[in-house]
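**Protein of interest**
===
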Amino acid sequence: MKKTVARTLLTQFFLLGSFGVLWGQQDNASQAPPDNSKVNRRDRSQGEPTADQQKENTSDRQLAAQIRRAVVKDKSLSSRAHNIKIIAQNGTVTLKGPVKSEQEKEAIEGKVAEIAGADKVTSELQVDSTQ
């Protein structure tokens, strides 16, 4: 009798667990997979600064690091905002990548303008509210 009850409970446990796994997979299946291919292609086009063009001189490295620290320190920003591309070339900063809202975009641009100077910032940040 105890074996039958234990076997029944075990069977129900596995069935419910399987249902939970399938339920979770259905939720994930309805979401579009992340795809940055178009953005990456645009960023590689001729004349566009890319992260590999970040200058290795001390002043540009320090400038990029100071901006990165300021952006990451702001916990009100989304993880997408924390992961934008910051490219410093001869004192000029280019910002690229998606952010969650216009407010995030303005907040980042303001921080960078304070650090590098408003005339030294090129913003190519894009508001992407789909994610």
In short: Strands lie at 85-89, 92-99, 121-127. The chain has five helices and three strands.
